[in-house]
Amino acid sequence: MVHFAGENGIDNGAIAKEFFTSVVSEIGKNIFPNGSPTKSLLYVHNGTFHACGQIVATSIAQGGPPPCFLEDSVYDMLVGSNVNMNALIPEKHLTCHEQALLEGIKNDPTSLQDVILEHEYAGNIDKDHVDDIIGTVMISPVSKRLIYLNEFRRGLDLYGLPALIQANSDLCKHL
Q1: What are the domain boundaries of the chain?
Q2: CB of 49 within 8 A of CB of 152?
């Protein structure tokens, strides 16, 4: 006998599926908004990313919904976490929002000085140094995203999903 959403019942799979549908959707909205992990080292420290990975792994293992909330660049980093920070490609490694930020920096870096400094750039902020600024601004979210995704991946390992996903990355991408 199980109890979910105010209802008692014997679970033949429907209640579990309803539960995982609800929880995986909430993970997408709150922990991976806009397809990318929330910027939170607290979620690394307190195990939130890890727990979310475990929930998603359990959902998939029990026939529930897969996580259809990852942006392509984020999914690709989850599958292949070996990223060369000196060879980042905006279209491959950055979200749409981050790519738009780079365009803004290219057009007028001085107007985005505060954002540039938040990404730990420590040089001159002007048009002459745009390439260095962009390189630094690309490294900042990617390096942190790798930390977050590593914890999520550790959670997915509850059922050995990282190996399965890596072996079938194109097939799993569209789940």
Answers
A1: 14-82+146-171, 90-140
A2: yes
